[in-house]
Specification:
The complex is a heterodimer of chains A (630) and B (82). By secondary structure, chain A is of the alpha/beta class. Chain A is built from 27 helices and eleven strands. In chain A, strands 1, 2, 3, 4, 5, 6, 8 and 9 form an eight-stranded mixed beta sheet that branches. In chain A, helix 3 packs across helix 10 and helix 25 runs antiparallel to helix 27. The longest helix of chain A has 51 residues. Chain B has 82 residues and is mainly beta. Chain B is built from two helices and six strands; from the N terminus they run ββαβββαβ. In chain B, strands 1-6-2-3-4-5 form a six-stranded antiparallel beta sheet. The chains are: A alpha/beta (630), B mainly beta (82). Strand 11 of chain A pairs antiparallel with strand 5 of chain B.
Chain lengths: 630, 82
């Protein structure tokens, strides 16, 4: 991968919903016409996709990528959603996927943010240049009116040569409207020079869309047709940009001279002087919601009332009627670390509420336009760790669930950054399940012990980042980020996103949680776990200066990170011993599910190195701290 | 009239700038797509302590990391041109 940012969007839209279909490569109804939704990130494509296809959608992976494809049906059409893109090209996986769906589209519904015409019409004009049948849906008309922007829609339609419909997607779209949109799709206006350029290439590749991309230097498409890639990209792009600027000048009247509150807010949250207090305020509200309400009250109810009181005894009883309680199978399935009892309770009644609440918070931050601004503010700081501002998403998410955050590292632009972010997550970020126990233990241990803990973990985080940045070849991608307007997030969209992300998380992680629990269950039954605990004991006593029992807590930490921390509860530890034990537990092996997901995302080789690294670092650092403070 | 040219990371908040050169390669089309290209007039909305710069062109705002900003040459315009 190159060290360049592969796209300038910041939604992790890329990582969840969309995803197209490599028509032609995935199975599809060969005869049905294909409607494709295309647009810049966060313009409301998915709302329209849902209006078209309802709940009956098909999600699959695009061959050879981690990009998922969403396909639905509307009347006799197949409908495809695409990742948000700023233009059709091949700069990253999402663009490649979007490109291939768009190339095979019969009709394109191009969703455009009415408050962002200059940016969005670039894609529109490119779709038109591809010779596609296009209809433009001018979204966010409510904001357009609110900002006193006037758009001459008839004129815009005339310039583009396609129909333009003003909409406010969030207020809902009727079926007959959708029919009208689809029915009025047509080919638009191309510039004369481009038209003649296209003609030459058309003869060689057979389709106008592909001809344009070849001219624009798209290597993949050129290879597919066995022709040489064109060299006119900059020329075509600049001409298109000028054309779009001209159109915008002609149709847009944006007289508002005074800056709106949203605009000023957007400015304040980037500037450190006001941005840092704003971040603290956001974190505090997030803490009240996630840390107080969900992690304590809600999880307490779901985990104990539902999980431990209702679910576990019930399933134990059920399994007990089939298997004798003394059998291996019984222990494995519904024993203390049983696959059905513990994992289900953990996953559904502890992790799920936490992950959902994190996703809600993140979606609000994202839809409001705050997240890209936060990324901008912290860009330079993350630069020291070999990351750019974009990495703020997986790092924040890690405090919710390291497993889900590890999946989210996909949105980073280079393999290098994915490695660094994954390592930081696995080493130094305590997940919410662990945080609650850590906070409680530290509260008991006092301010000094807490300070040492925070300082040590933070130092390790910084050291790992800077070290990897030095050691790994190449350079990290610089930030090039579109800052969308600040908007009040719409809750239905927030919940929809949360739903999709939660679904993906559960889909990707659930299996690993069960496999992990099974592996530990077997290790316990075969005595391997006890051997490990005994083997670790001398190290724990002499090197870490902790009671021998602490080794049990560490090993349990592999099963569930919070188990490890919770095990320390029962021990009478001195304040500094608490610090040492927590340092080890935090740095130590991530939970088994996040380990498995890491192996899948980063490969066995890299995953193993990070995993072994956590053992080494946890015990080395823990020992050093023990010898320094005790 | 010749305006003084600087690297973008040296710009200060509130300055009006004209983009003179952008880095070549894969990034160039990404700038163009976001409305930034050679000759374009933009305003420096903010320059953060680390050197991350936010440019504004009408309603479009784009954040540019320090290492990237260093490789962009801009001319400082005297004041807001009408």
């Amino acid at each position: 991968m190159s060290a360049e940012p592969s796209d300038s969007s910041f939604s992790f839209e890329h990582q969840d919903k969309h995803r197209h279909a490599g028509l032609g490569r995935l199975k599809n109804d060969a005869l049905a016409s294909k409607i494709v939704l295309a647009g810049n990130p966060n313009v409301g494509k998915s709302i329209i996709f849902n209006a078209l296809s309802g709940m009956n959608v098909d999600v699959s992976n695009y061959p050879g990528t981690t990009v998922e494809v969403v396909k639905g049906h509307f009347r006799d059409y197949e409908v495809f959603d695409t990742p948000g893109i700023y233009g059709v090209s091949s700069f990253n996986d999402e663009e490649i996927v979007a490109r291939d769906i768009i190339l095979e589209a019969d009709i394109i519904l191009n969703v455009v943010d009415g408050t962002h015409l200059e940016r969005d019409l670039f894609l529109t004009q490119q779709l038109i240049d591809m010779g596609k049948k296009v209809v433009v849906l001018l979204n966010f008309m409510d904001d357009v009116r609110r900002y006193h922007i006037t758009i001459d829609i008839a004129k815009l339609s005339q310039f583009l040569g396609v129909m333009v419909f003003p909409i406010t997607a969030l207020e809902g779209i009727a079926l007959d409207q959708l029919d009208r949109f689809i029915g009025s799709a047509r080919e638009g206006m191309q510039r004369e020079e481009l038209h003649s350029l296209l003609h030459g290439m058309l003869a060689m590749v057979g389709a106008q869309g592909e001809a344009l991309l070849v001219l624009e230097g798209d290597q993949f498409v050129a290879e597919r047709h066995g022709v040489r890639q064109g060299t006119k990209r900059d020329e075509i792009y600049i001409a298109r940009r000028n054309r779009v600027n001209y159109i915008v000048n002609q149709v847009l009247n944006d007289v508002s001279t005074s800056r709106s509150f949203a605009e000023r807010l957007g400015y304040w949250v980037i500037k450190p002087l006001t941005g840092i207090p704003a971040l603290l305020a956001v974190l505090y509200v997030a803490y009240l919601f996630i840390g107080k309400f969900v992690a304590q009250e809600l999880v307490n109810f779901t985990e104990h009332q539902i999980g431990n009181t209702l679910w576990s005894p019930w399933i134990r009883g059920l399994v007990g009627t089939l298997l004798p309680a003394s059998s291996w199978w019984y222990t494995l399935l519904v024993g203390e670390y049983g696959v059905i009892t513990m994992t289900t309770t953990y996953l559904l009644f502890l992790l799920l509420p936490l992950v959902v609440s994190f996703y809600i918070a993140l979606a609000i931050m994202e839809d409001s336009g705050y997240l890209p601004r936060l990324a901008t503010m912290v860009d330079r700081m993350l630069g020291f760790l070999g990351l750019n501002g974009r990495a703020v998403i997986p790092l924040i998410l890690g405090f919710g669930c390291v497993t889900s955050a590890t999946i989210t590292t996909r949105l980073l632009s280079s393999e290098r950054e994915k490695t660094i972010a994954t390592a930081i997550l696995q080493f130094a970020i305590p997940c919410s399940a662990q945080l609650a126990v850590i906070a409680a233990l530290l509260a008991g241990a006092g301010f000094g012990a807490s300070l040492v803990y925070v300082a040590v973990i933070f130092t390790v985080l910084v050291l790992i980042g800077t070290m990897l940045d030095k050691v790994l070849p190449g350079q990290s991608a610089p930030l090039l980020l579109d800052l969308p307007p600040m908007r009040l997030p719409r809750m239905n969209n927030v919940f929809r996103k949360t739903g999709i992300r939660t679904y993906y998380f559960m889909k990707e992680a659930t299996g690993w949680f069960f496999i992990g629990a099974l592996a530990v269950g077997i290790a316990q039954l075969t005595g391997l776990l006890q051997v490990l605990e005994r083997g670790l004991a001398p190290l724990v006593v002499h090197w870490l200066r902790l009671p021998a029992d602490a080794s049990v807590a560490f090993i349990m930490g592999i099963v569930r990170r919070d188990f490890g921390a919770a095990g320390l509860y029962q021990m009478a530890l001195r304040p500094m011993q608490v610090t040492v034990a927590l340092v080890v537990i935090t740095l130590f092996v991530p939970c088994i599910a996040s380990l498995m997901v890491m192996m899948k995302e980063r490969g066995w080789k890299e995953g193993s190195v990070i995993w072994i690294g956590t053992w080494v670092v946890a015990f080395t650092v823990g020992g050093i701290v023990a010898h320094m403070v005790m | 009239m010749e305006n003084p040219s600087i690297a973008l990371d040296k710009a200060t908040a509130g300055q009006w700038l004209r983009i003179k050169t952008l880095p070549d390669g894969q990034l160039h089309p990404q700038f163009v797509r976001l409305g930034l290209h050679e000759g374009q007039r933009v305003r420096c909305l903010e320059r953060l302590p680390g050197g991350t710069v936010v440019l504004q062109k009408n309603r479009q705002q784009v954040a540019i990391g320090h290492s990237l900003a260093k490789s962009i040459v801009v001319a400082v315009l005297p004041e807001e041109p009408s």
